[in-house]
Design brief:
heterodimer; A: 11 helices; globular; B: 321 residues; alpha/beta; Rossmann fold
Protein backbone atom coordinates (compact mmCIF):
# COMPACT_ATOMS: atom_id res chain seq x y z
CA UNK A 1 0.00 0.00 0.00
CA UNK A 2 2.73 2.40 1.03
CA UNK A 3 4.71 1.50 -2.09
CA UNK A 4 1.72 2.31 -4.30
CA UNK A 5 1.04 5.59 -2.50
CA UNK A 6 4.67 6.67 -2.68
CA UNK A 7 5.04 5.49 -6.28
CA UNK A 8 2.07 7.65 -7.27
CA UNK A 9 3.64 10.59 -5.42
CA UNK A 10 6.98 10.31 -7.22
CA UNK A 11 5.34 9.48 -10.55
CA UNK A 12 3.02 12.45 -10.34
CA UNK A 13 5.80 14.87 -9.47
CA UNK A 14 8.16 13.68 -12.18
CA UNK A 15 5.45 13.72 -14.82
CA UNK A 16 4.37 17.22 -13.81
CA UNK A 17 7.94 18.54 -13.98
CA UNK A 18 8.45 16.92 -17.35
CA UNK A 19 5.34 18.47 -18.78
CA UNK A 20 6.88 21.85 -18.01
CA UNK A 21 9.61 21.14 -20.55
CA UNK A 22 7.80 18.98 -23.12
CA UNK A 23 10.48 19.73 -25.69
CA UNK A 24 12.47 16.62 -24.97
CA UNK A 25 9.50 14.30 -25.45
CA UNK A 26 9.30 15.72 -28.95
CA UNK A 27 13.08 15.60 -29.42
CA UNK A 28 13.13 11.97 -28.28
CA UNK A 29 10.66 11.02 -30.96
CA UNK A 30 12.27 13.09 -33.71
CA UNK A 31 14.87 10.48 -34.64
CA UNK A 32 12.35 7.66 -35.21
CA UNK A 33 10.21 10.06 -37.21
CA UNK A 34 13.17 10.96 -39.40
CA UNK A 35 13.91 7.24 -39.82
CA UNK A 36 10.30 6.67 -40.73
CA UNK A 37 10.40 9.30 -43.45
CA UNK A 38 13.92 8.66 -44.82
CA UNK A 39 13.79 4.88 -44.76
CA UNK A 40 10.37 4.69 -46.31
CA UNK A 41 11.55 4.45 -49.93
CA UNK A 42 14.02 1.68 -49.03
CA UNK A 43 11.67 -0.43 -46.99
CA UNK A 44 9.88 -2.45 -49.63
CA UNK A 45 12.96 -3.71 -51.47
CA UNK A 46 14.94 -4.17 -48.23
CA UNK A 47 12.27 -6.18 -46.45
CA UNK A 48 11.20 -8.19 -49.52
CA UNK A 49 12.99 -11.25 -48.11
CA UNK A 50 10.74 -11.09 -45.04
CA UNK A 51 7.60 -11.14 -47.19
CA UNK A 52 6.96 -7.47 -47.70
CA UNK A 53 5.33 -7.15 -51.08
CA UNK A 54 3.74 -3.75 -50.53
CA UNK A 55 4.57 -0.57 -48.73
CA UNK A 56 1.92 -1.33 -46.06
CA UNK A 57 3.39 -4.78 -45.44
CA UNK A 58 6.86 -3.27 -45.18
CA UNK A 59 5.60 -0.89 -42.51
CA UNK A 60 4.08 -3.74 -40.53
CA UNK A 61 7.57 -5.18 -40.25
CA UNK A 62 9.48 -1.97 -39.83
CA UNK A 63 7.33 0.01 -37.39
CA UNK A 64 7.14 -2.65 -34.62
CA UNK A 65 10.94 -2.94 -34.64
CA UNK A 66 11.31 0.77 -34.43
CA UNK A 67 8.89 1.00 -31.51
CA UNK A 68 10.91 -1.59 -29.62
CA UNK A 69 14.08 0.37 -30.37
CA UNK A 70 12.38 3.53 -29.13
CA UNK A 71 11.30 1.86 -25.88
CA UNK A 72 14.74 0.38 -25.35
CA UNK A 73 16.70 3.55 -26.09
CA UNK A 74 14.28 5.92 -24.35
CA UNK A 75 14.54 3.92 -21.14
CA UNK A 76 18.29 3.41 -21.35
CA UNK A 77 18.94 7.14 -21.50
CA UNK A 78 16.64 7.91 -18.55
CA UNK A 79 19.63 7.60 -16.21
CA UNK A 80 20.97 10.96 -17.31
CA UNK A 81 17.97 12.66 -15.81
CA UNK A 82 18.68 10.90 -12.53
CA UNK A 83 22.31 12.06 -12.60
CA UNK A 84 21.06 15.63 -12.68
CA UNK A 85 18.72 14.94 -9.77
CA UNK A 86 21.52 13.27 -7.81
CA UNK A 87 23.80 16.26 -8.14
CA UNK A 88 21.07 18.68 -7.11
CA UNK A 89 20.40 16.76 -3.90
CA UNK A 90 16.83 15.76 -4.69
CA UNK A 91 17.40 12.04 -4.32
CA UNK A 92 19.20 12.55 -1.02
CA UNK A 93 16.37 14.73 0.21
CA UNK A 94 13.98 11.86 -0.46
CA UNK A 95 16.26 9.34 1.21
CA UNK A 96 16.17 11.07 4.60
CA UNK A 97 12.39 10.60 4.62
CA UNK A 98 10.70 7.25 5.23
CA UNK A 99 9.51 7.21 1.58
CA UNK A 100 9.58 3.77 -0.05
CA UNK A 101 12.88 3.21 -1.88
CA UNK A 102 11.19 1.05 -4.48
CA UNK A 103 8.78 3.92 -5.14
CA UNK A 104 11.70 6.24 -5.90
CA UNK A 105 12.53 3.87 -8.76
CA UNK A 106 9.03 2.86 -9.89
CA UNK A 107 7.66 6.41 -9.87
CA UNK A 108 10.38 7.47 -12.26
CA UNK A 109 10.25 4.36 -14.47
CA UNK A 110 6.47 4.64 -14.83
CA UNK A 111 6.87 8.26 -15.87
CA UNK A 112 9.18 6.98 -18.60
CA UNK A 113 6.49 4.50 -19.65
CA UNK A 114 4.03 7.38 -20.09
CA UNK A 115 6.57 9.25 -22.21
CA UNK A 116 6.98 6.16 -24.36
CA UNK A 117 3.22 5.76 -24.78
CA UNK A 118 3.02 9.29 -26.13
CA UNK A 119 6.03 8.86 -28.40
CA UNK A 120 4.76 5.54 -29.75
CA UNK A 121 1.37 7.10 -30.46
CA UNK A 122 3.07 9.80 -32.56
CA UNK A 123 4.94 7.16 -34.59
CA UNK A 124 1.85 5.00 -35.09
CA UNK A 125 -0.35 7.89 -36.18
CA UNK A 126 2.32 8.97 -38.68
CA UNK A 127 2.62 5.39 -39.93
CA UNK A 128 -1.12 5.18 -40.48
CA UNK A 129 -0.65 7.91 -43.07
CA UNK A 130 1.82 5.62 -44.85
CA UNK A 131 -0.68 2.81 -45.00
CA UNK A 132 -0.01 0.90 -41.78
CA UNK A 133 -3.09 -0.84 -40.41
CA UNK A 134 -3.36 -2.43 -36.99
CA UNK A 135 -6.32 -3.57 -34.88
CA UNK A 136 -6.96 -1.82 -31.56
CA UNK A 137 -6.65 -4.99 -29.40
CA UNK A 138 -3.37 -5.87 -31.09
CA UNK A 139 -2.14 -2.34 -30.47
CA UNK A 140 -3.03 -2.53 -26.78
CA UNK A 141 -1.19 -5.85 -26.37
CA UNK A 142 1.73 -4.26 -28.22
CA UNK A 143 1.69 -1.39 -25.75
CA UNK A 144 1.97 -3.96 -22.96
CA UNK A 145 5.17 -5.28 -24.50
CA UNK A 146 6.56 -1.78 -24.97
CA UNK A 147 5.71 -0.83 -21.37
CA UNK A 148 7.61 -3.86 -20.03
CA UNK A 149 10.60 -2.96 -22.19
CA UNK A 150 10.67 0.63 -20.93
CA UNK A 151 10.24 -0.45 -17.30
CA UNK A 152 13.24 -2.74 -17.72
CA UNK A 153 15.50 -0.42 -19.68
CA UNK A 154 14.73 2.61 -17.49
CA UNK A 155 15.24 0.66 -14.26
CA UNK A 156 18.52 -0.65 -15.58
CA UNK A 157 19.62 2.84 -16.54
CA UNK A 158 18.73 4.27 -13.12
CA UNK A 159 20.58 1.49 -11.34
CA UNK A 160 23.68 2.07 -13.45
CA UNK A 161 23.46 5.85 -12.98
CA UNK A 162 23.47 5.35 -9.19
CA UNK A 163 26.68 3.38 -9.54
CA UNK A 164 28.42 5.42 -12.24
CA UNK A 165 28.19 9.10 -11.46
CA UNK A 166 30.23 10.30 -14.42
CA UNK A 167 27.92 11.27 -17.32
CA UNK A 168 30.61 10.66 -19.94
CA UNK A 169 31.25 7.11 -18.70
CA UNK A 170 27.52 6.48 -18.36
CA UNK A 171 26.96 7.58 -21.95
CA UNK A 172 29.61 5.22 -23.29
CA UNK A 173 28.29 2.33 -21.26
CA UNK A 174 24.70 2.89 -22.34
CA UNK A 175 25.82 3.07 -25.96
CA UNK A 176 27.76 -0.16 -25.60
CA UNK A 177 24.70 -1.90 -24.20
CA UNK A 178 22.17 -0.37 -26.58
CA UNK A 179 23.87 -0.99 -29.93
CA UNK A 180 24.37 -4.77 -29.68
CA UNK A 181 20.92 -5.21 -28.13
CA UNK A 182 19.32 -3.36 -31.03
CA UNK A 183 21.22 -5.42 -33.58
CA UNK A 184 20.43 -8.69 -31.80
CA UNK A 185 16.78 -7.75 -31.64
CA UNK A 186 16.51 -7.13 -35.35
CA UNK A 187 14.86 -3.82 -34.58
CA UNK A 188 16.08 -2.07 -37.70
CA UNK A 189 17.74 -4.80 -39.77
CA UNK A 190 15.89 -8.13 -39.88
CA UNK A 191 17.76 -10.77 -37.91
CA UNK A 192 16.61 -13.32 -40.52
CA UNK A 193 19.40 -12.01 -42.73
CA UNK A 194 21.99 -12.90 -40.10
CA UNK A 195 24.22 -16.00 -40.03
CA UNK A 196 23.09 -18.90 -37.86
CA UNK A 197 25.26 -18.16 -34.80
CA UNK A 198 23.92 -14.62 -34.64
CA UNK A 199 20.35 -15.89 -34.89
CA UNK A 200 21.02 -18.39 -32.08
CA UNK A 201 22.35 -15.59 -29.90
CA UNK A 202 19.30 -13.50 -30.72
CA UNK A 203 17.04 -16.36 -29.59
CA UNK A 204 18.21 -15.82 -26.03
CA UNK A 205 17.49 -12.11 -26.22
CA UNK A 206 14.10 -11.13 -24.76
CA UNK A 207 14.05 -8.00 -26.88
CA UNK A 208 14.32 -10.09 -30.03
CA UNK A 209 11.21 -11.96 -28.90
CA UNK A 210 9.59 -8.60 -28.27
CA UNK A 211 10.28 -7.53 -31.86
CA UNK A 212 9.02 -10.85 -33.24
CA UNK A 213 5.92 -10.66 -31.04
CA UNK A 214 5.23 -7.06 -32.03
CA UNK A 215 5.56 -7.97 -35.72
CA UNK A 216 3.14 -10.85 -35.23
CA UNK A 217 0.67 -8.43 -33.64
CA UNK A 218 1.03 -5.86 -36.40
CA UNK A 219 0.68 -8.44 -39.18
CA UNK A 220 -2.52 -9.73 -37.63
CA UNK A 221 -1.40 -12.91 -35.83
CA UNK A 222 -2.41 -12.28 -32.23
CA UNK A 223 -2.20 -16.00 -31.44
CA UNK A 224 1.46 -16.32 -32.37
CA UNK A 225 3.47 -18.04 -29.60
CA UNK A 226 6.18 -15.39 -29.85
CA UNK A 227 3.77 -12.97 -28.12
CA UNK A 228 3.42 -14.89 -24.88
CA UNK A 229 7.08 -15.81 -25.00
CA UNK A 230 7.90 -12.11 -25.25
CA UNK A 231 5.66 -11.34 -22.27
CA UNK A 232 7.14 -14.13 -20.16
CA UNK A 233 10.75 -13.26 -20.89
CA UNK A 234 10.28 -9.50 -20.60
CA UNK A 235 8.22 -9.91 -17.41
CA UNK A 236 10.97 -11.98 -15.81
CA UNK A 237 13.65 -9.56 -16.91
CA UNK A 238 11.64 -6.58 -15.65
CA UNK A 239 11.24 -8.14 -12.19
CA UNK A 240 14.94 -8.92 -11.93
CA UNK A 241 16.00 -5.47 -13.12
CA UNK A 242 13.57 -3.64 -10.83
CA UNK A 243 14.71 -5.70 -7.84
CA UNK A 244 18.37 -4.94 -8.59
CA UNK A 245 17.83 -1.25 -9.26
CA UNK A 246 15.49 -0.85 -6.26
CA UNK A 247 18.28 -2.12 -4.03
CA UNK A 248 20.59 0.54 -5.47
CA UNK A 249 18.07 3.20 -4.44
CA UNK A 250 17.90 1.73 -0.94
CA UNK A 251 21.64 1.54 -0.50
CA UNK A 252 23.80 4.51 0.24
CA UNK A 253 24.42 7.07 -2.43
CA UNK A 254 27.62 9.00 -1.93
CA UNK B 1 20.46 11.68 28.59
CA UNK B 2 21.17 13.62 25.39
CA UNK B 3 18.89 13.74 22.38
CA UNK B 4 21.87 12.78 20.23
CA UNK B 5 24.30 10.29 21.72
CA UNK B 6 27.20 9.08 19.67
CA UNK B 7 29.89 6.61 20.64
CA UNK B 8 32.92 5.70 18.56
CA UNK B 9 31.33 6.55 15.21
CA UNK B 10 33.78 5.84 12.36
CA UNK B 11 33.87 5.76 8.60
CA UNK B 12 36.71 5.18 6.19
CA UNK B 13 36.81 5.30 2.43
CA UNK B 14 38.93 3.42 -0.06
CA UNK B 15 40.64 5.57 -2.60
CA UNK B 16 42.26 3.94 -5.57
CA UNK B 17 45.16 5.48 -7.41
CA UNK B 18 46.85 3.35 -10.09
CA UNK B 19 47.50 0.07 -8.35
CA UNK B 20 47.55 1.26 -4.80
CA UNK B 21 44.44 1.17 -2.67
CA UNK B 22 44.57 3.29 0.44
CA UNK B 23 42.03 3.58 3.20
CA UNK B 24 41.34 7.08 4.38
CA UNK B 25 39.73 7.58 7.77
CA UNK B 26 37.13 10.27 7.13
CA UNK B 27 35.78 9.93 10.68
CA UNK B 28 37.93 8.09 13.19
CA UNK B 29 35.86 7.46 16.31
CA UNK B 30 33.66 10.37 17.26
CA UNK B 31 31.86 10.67 20.61
CA UNK B 32 29.12 13.27 21.02
CA UNK B 33 26.42 14.10 23.50
CA UNK B 34 23.99 16.79 22.42
CA UNK B 35 21.35 17.99 24.86
CA UNK B 36 17.76 18.66 23.85
CA UNK B 37 17.14 22.24 22.74
CA UNK B 38 20.77 23.05 22.02
CA UNK B 39 22.31 24.66 19.00
CA UNK B 40 25.32 22.41 18.64
CA UNK B 41 28.09 23.41 16.26
CA UNK B 42 30.56 21.15 14.53
CA UNK B 43 33.53 23.35 13.69
CA UNK B 44 36.40 22.29 11.49
CA UNK B 45 38.21 22.86 8.21
CA UNK B 46 37.03 21.35 4.92
CA UNK B 47 37.67 17.63 4.82
CA UNK B 48 37.74 17.29 8.62
CA UNK B 49 34.88 14.78 8.60
CA UNK B 50 31.99 17.11 9.46
CA UNK B 51 29.75 16.23 6.54
CA UNK B 52 30.53 12.51 6.74
CA UNK B 53 29.52 12.48 10.42
CA UNK B 54 26.34 14.38 9.65
CA UNK B 55 25.43 12.06 6.78
CA UNK B 56 25.93 9.04 9.00
CA UNK B 57 23.68 10.52 11.67
CA UNK B 58 21.07 11.33 9.00
CA UNK B 59 20.96 7.62 7.94
CA UNK B 60 22.40 8.45 4.50
CA UNK B 61 25.57 6.40 4.85
CA UNK B 62 26.13 3.42 7.12
CA UNK B 63 28.89 3.81 9.73
CA UNK B 64 31.77 1.32 9.76
CA UNK B 65 31.83 1.28 13.53
CA UNK B 66 30.24 2.88 16.54
CA UNK B 67 26.77 3.40 17.92
CA UNK B 68 24.38 6.31 18.02
CA UNK B 69 20.91 7.06 19.29
CA UNK B 70 18.88 9.99 18.08
CA UNK B 71 15.71 10.93 19.98
CA UNK B 72 15.87 7.51 21.59
CA UNK B 73 16.04 5.58 18.31
CA UNK B 74 19.03 3.43 17.43
CA UNK B 75 20.80 4.62 14.29
CA UNK B 76 21.52 1.11 13.03
CA UNK B 77 18.46 -0.87 14.00
CA UNK B 78 15.69 1.75 13.94
CA UNK B 79 16.40 3.79 10.84
CA UNK B 80 12.72 4.49 10.14
CA UNK B 81 12.25 5.94 13.63
CA UNK B 82 15.40 8.03 13.25
CA UNK B 83 14.11 9.40 9.94
CA UNK B 84 10.85 10.42 11.56
CA UNK B 85 12.71 12.30 14.26
CA UNK B 86 15.20 14.18 12.12
CA UNK B 87 15.32 16.81 9.42
CA UNK B 88 18.41 17.04 7.22
CA UNK B 89 19.36 20.07 5.17
CA UNK B 90 22.26 19.34 2.84
CA UNK B 91 25.00 21.79 2.05
CA UNK B 92 24.17 22.19 -1.62
CA UNK B 93 20.44 22.48 -1.05
CA UNK B 94 17.86 20.21 -2.60
CA UNK B 95 15.38 22.31 -4.54
CA UNK B 96 14.43 21.54 -8.13
CA UNK B 97 14.86 24.35 -10.66
CA UNK B 98 11.48 23.92 -12.27
CA UNK B 99 9.40 23.20 -9.17
CA UNK B 100 7.82 25.92 -7.03
CA UNK B 101 8.45 26.31 -3.30
CA UNK B 102 4.86 25.27 -2.55
CA UNK B 103 5.19 22.08 -4.61
CA UNK B 104 8.50 21.21 -2.97
CA UNK B 105 7.08 21.67 0.53
CA UNK B 106 3.96 19.62 -0.19
CA UNK B 107 6.01 16.82 -1.75
CA UNK B 108 8.45 16.74 1.17
CA UNK B 109 5.59 16.53 3.67
CA UNK B 110 3.88 13.78 1.70
CA UNK B 111 7.10 11.76 1.45
CA UNK B 112 6.96 11.80 5.24
CA UNK B 113 3.54 10.18 5.01
CA UNK B 114 1.54 13.31 5.82
CA UNK B 115 -1.88 13.49 4.15
CA UNK B 116 -2.39 15.75 1.14
CA UNK B 117 -4.69 18.24 2.89
CA UNK B 118 -2.42 18.50 5.92
CA UNK B 119 0.65 18.78 3.69
CA UNK B 120 -0.92 21.72 1.88
CA UNK B 121 -1.81 23.39 5.18
CA UNK B 122 1.72 22.98 6.48
CA UNK B 123 3.19 24.30 3.24
CA UNK B 124 1.12 27.49 3.56
CA UNK B 125 2.25 27.93 7.17
CA UNK B 126 5.90 27.26 6.31
CA UNK B 127 5.83 29.68 3.38
CA UNK B 128 4.54 32.39 5.70
CA UNK B 129 7.00 31.59 8.47
CA UNK B 130 9.96 31.77 6.10
CA UNK B 131 8.68 34.86 4.29
CA UNK B 132 8.28 33.02 1.02
CA UNK B 133 4.55 33.50 0.41
CA UNK B 134 5.20 36.13 -2.21
CA UNK B 135 7.28 33.72 -4.34
CA UNK B 136 5.41 30.54 -3.41
CA UNK B 137 4.24 29.74 -6.91
CA UNK B 138 7.32 30.76 -8.84
CA UNK B 139 9.92 28.25 -10.00
CA UNK B 140 12.82 27.83 -7.55
CA UNK B 141 15.34 28.78 -10.24
CA UNK B 142 14.10 32.39 -10.01
CA UNK B 143 14.95 32.63 -6.29
CA UNK B 144 17.96 34.30 -4.68
CA UNK B 145 20.50 32.20 -2.79
CA UNK B 146 19.01 33.19 0.56
CA UNK B 147 15.44 32.43 -0.54
CA UNK B 148 16.44 29.03 -1.86
CA UNK B 149 18.21 28.26 1.40
CA UNK B 150 15.04 29.17 3.30
CA UNK B 151 13.04 26.75 1.14
CA UNK B 152 15.62 24.07 2.01
CA UNK B 153 15.18 24.67 5.71
CA UNK B 154 11.40 24.84 5.45
CA UNK B 155 11.48 21.44 3.68
CA UNK B 156 13.80 20.02 6.32
CA UNK B 157 11.39 20.81 9.16
CA UNK B 158 8.03 20.34 7.42
CA UNK B 159 7.39 17.12 9.40
CA UNK B 160 8.26 18.87 12.70
CA UNK B 161 11.34 16.86 13.59
CA UNK B 162 12.94 16.89 17.02
CA UNK B 163 16.44 17.23 15.63
CA UNK B 164 17.56 19.29 12.63
CA UNK B 165 20.88 18.66 10.90
CA UNK B 166 22.17 21.65 8.99
CA UNK B 167 25.24 21.15 6.82
CA UNK B 168 27.09 24.45 6.36
CA UNK B 169 23.89 26.52 6.47
CA UNK B 170 25.46 29.85 5.56
CA UNK B 171 28.22 28.90 3.15
CA UNK B 172 27.98 31.06 0.06
CA UNK B 173 25.54 33.55 1.57
CA UNK B 174 26.18 37.27 1.77
CA UNK B 175 26.55 38.80 5.27
CA UNK B 176 22.97 40.01 5.39
CA UNK B 177 21.50 36.64 4.39
CA UNK B 178 23.82 35.02 6.90
CA UNK B 179 22.50 37.13 9.75
CA UNK B 180 18.98 36.33 8.59
CA UNK B 181 19.83 32.62 8.59
CA UNK B 182 21.17 32.83 12.16
CA UNK B 183 17.82 34.25 13.22
CA UNK B 184 16.07 31.36 11.50
CA UNK B 185 18.28 28.84 13.31
CA UNK B 186 17.52 30.49 16.65
CA UNK B 187 13.83 30.39 15.78
CA UNK B 188 14.05 26.62 15.21
CA UNK B 189 15.42 26.26 18.70
CA UNK B 190 12.75 28.49 20.19
CA UNK B 191 10.19 26.16 18.62
CA UNK B 192 11.70 23.29 20.58
CA UNK B 193 14.01 21.76 18.03
CA UNK B 194 17.58 20.69 18.65
CA UNK B 195 19.89 22.04 15.96
CA UNK B 196 23.10 20.29 14.95
CA UNK B 197 25.05 22.32 12.40
CA UNK B 198 28.43 22.16 10.77
CA UNK B 199 30.45 25.23 9.93
CA UNK B 200 33.93 26.36 9.12
CA UNK B 201 33.16 29.93 10.13
CA UNK B 202 34.63 30.79 13.53
CA UNK B 203 32.19 33.60 14.12
CA UNK B 204 29.21 31.37 13.38
CA UNK B 205 30.34 28.78 15.90
CA UNK B 206 31.12 31.47 18.47
CA UNK B 207 28.02 33.64 18.18
CA UNK B 208 25.32 31.17 17.18
CA UNK B 209 26.17 27.92 18.93
CA UNK B 210 25.52 26.97 22.55
CA UNK B 211 28.13 24.29 22.39
CA UNK B 212 30.87 23.50 19.90
CA UNK B 213 32.89 20.43 19.02
CA UNK B 214 36.06 21.11 17.07
CA UNK B 215 36.90 18.36 14.61
CA UNK B 216 40.11 17.89 12.68
CA UNK B 217 41.28 14.87 10.72
CA UNK B 218 38.20 12.88 11.69
CA UNK B 219 38.78 13.32 15.42
CA UNK B 220 37.18 15.67 17.91
CA UNK B 221 39.98 17.72 19.45
CA UNK B 222 37.93 19.94 21.78
CA UNK B 223 34.37 20.26 22.98
CA UNK B 224 32.48 22.71 25.16
CA UNK B 225 30.72 26.06 25.13
CA UNK B 226 32.61 28.67 23.08
CA UNK B 227 33.41 30.55 26.31
CA UNK B 228 34.77 27.51 28.14
CA UNK B 229 36.90 26.57 25.18
CA UNK B 230 38.34 30.06 24.95
CA UNK B 231 38.88 30.21 28.71
CA UNK B 232 40.82 26.94 28.60
CA UNK B 233 43.49 28.92 26.84
CA UNK B 234 44.51 30.79 29.93
CA UNK B 235 45.28 34.44 29.56
CA UNK B 236 45.44 36.60 26.48
CA UNK B 237 47.07 36.57 23.08
CA UNK B 238 49.61 39.27 22.20
CA UNK B 239 50.60 39.75 18.59
CA UNK B 240 53.80 41.73 18.01
CA UNK B 241 55.10 42.92 14.67
CA UNK B 242 58.89 43.31 14.41
CA UNK B 243 59.54 42.93 10.67
CA UNK B 244 60.76 39.88 8.72
CA UNK B 245 64.46 40.46 9.51
CA UNK B 246 64.08 40.47 13.27
CA UNK B 247 61.35 37.91 13.78
CA UNK B 248 63.70 34.95 14.35
CA UNK B 249 65.89 36.87 16.75
CA UNK B 250 62.89 38.25 18.65
CA UNK B 251 61.59 34.69 18.98
CA UNK B 252 64.88 33.57 20.52
CA UNK B 253 65.00 36.47 22.93
CA UNK B 254 61.46 35.96 24.15
CA UNK B 255 61.54 32.17 24.44
CA UNK B 256 61.98 31.17 28.06
CA UNK B 257 60.63 34.40 29.58
CA UNK B 258 58.60 33.22 32.56
CA UNK B 259 55.53 35.41 31.94
CA UNK B 260 55.06 33.96 28.41
CA UNK B 261 53.33 30.59 28.14
CA UNK B 262 53.85 30.27 24.42
CA UNK B 263 56.00 31.95 21.77
CA UNK B 264 55.41 31.41 18.09
CA UNK B 265 57.05 33.08 15.10
CA UNK B 266 54.58 33.55 12.30
CA UNK B 267 54.81 34.68 8.69
CA UNK B 268 55.16 38.38 7.92
CA UNK B 269 57.51 39.22 10.78
CA UNK B 270 54.85 38.59 13.41
CA UNK B 271 55.12 36.92 16.80
CA UNK B 272 52.17 35.33 18.53
CA UNK B 273 52.57 35.21 22.30
CA UNK B 274 50.29 33.51 24.78
CA UNK B 275 50.44 35.41 28.08
CA UNK B 276 48.86 35.29 31.51
CA UNK B 277 47.72 38.87 31.43
CA UNK B 278 47.98 41.11 28.40
CA UNK B 279 48.07 44.38 30.37
CA UNK B 280 51.20 43.60 32.34
CA UNK B 281 52.91 41.51 29.69
CA UNK B 282 53.03 44.12 26.94
CA UNK B 283 55.44 46.56 28.69
CA UNK B 284 57.74 43.68 29.62
CA UNK B 285 57.74 42.34 26.06
CA UNK B 286 58.51 45.81 24.72
CA UNK B 287 61.38 46.27 27.19
CA UNK B 288 62.86 42.86 26.44
CA UNK B 289 62.79 43.49 22.72
CA UNK B 290 64.13 47.03 23.18
CA UNK B 291 67.07 45.70 25.23
CA UNK B 292 67.86 43.32 22.38
CA UNK B 293 67.82 46.24 19.94
CA UNK B 294 64.63 45.12 18.17
CA UNK B 295 62.07 47.78 17.29
CA UNK B 296 58.39 46.86 17.41
CA UNK B 297 56.09 48.17 14.73
CA UNK B 298 52.74 46.91 16.05
CA UNK B 299 51.42 45.43 19.28
CA UNK B 300 47.97 44.00 19.71
CA UNK B 301 46.34 42.30 22.67
CA UNK B 302 43.21 40.20 22.22
CA UNK B 303 41.17 37.64 24.07
CA UNK B 304 41.58 34.13 22.66
CA UNK B 305 39.20 33.25 19.81
CA UNK B 306 38.05 29.81 18.73
CA UNK B 307 40.81 30.01 16.15
CA UNK B 308 43.32 30.17 19.01
CA UNK B 309 41.65 27.10 20.47
CA UNK B 310 41.98 25.35 17.13
CA UNK B 311 45.59 26.47 16.82
CA UNK B 312 46.45 25.21 20.30
CA UNK B 313 44.88 21.82 19.64
CA UNK B 314 46.07 21.19 16.09
CA UNK B 315 49.08 23.44 15.56
CA UNK B 316 47.37 25.01 12.55
CA UNK B 317 45.11 27.98 12.13
CA UNK B 318 41.57 27.37 10.90
CA UNK B 319 41.86 30.47 8.75
CA UNK B 320 44.84 29.01 6.91
CA UNK B 321 43.44 25.55 6.33
Amino acid sequence: MKVLHDTWLIFHRNLKLMLRSPLWVVLGVSQPVVFLLLFAPLLKPALATMGAHSQAQAYRIYVPGMLVALALAGGLYAGFDLLRELSSGIVERARVTPVSRLALLLGRALRDVVVLVVQAAIIIVLSLLFGLTVSIPALLIGYGILALITLTSASFSYGVALKIKNPAVLGQLINNVAQPLMLLSGTLLPIALAPLWLRDTANGNPFNWAVTGMRALFTGHPGDPSIWKAFAMLGGLAVITIAWSGRKFAKSVR
Amino acid sequence: MGIIEVKGLAKSYETRSRRKTTRVDAVAGVDLDVAEGEIFGFLGPNGAGKTTTLRMLATLIPPDAGEATIAGANLRSQQAKVREAIGYIAQGGATTDDATAREELVLQARMHGISKAEAQRRAVAALAAFELTEYADRACKTYSGGQRRRVDIAMGIIHRPKVVFLDEPTTGLDPQSRAHMWDEVRRLRSEGMTVFLTTHYLEEADVLCDRVAIIDGGVIVAEGTPDTLKREISGDIVTVGVGEDFAEKAGEVLTGQDYLTEVEVRDGGMLRLAVEDGGTAVPRVMRTLDDAGIATSTVEVHRPTLDDVFLTKTGRSLRES
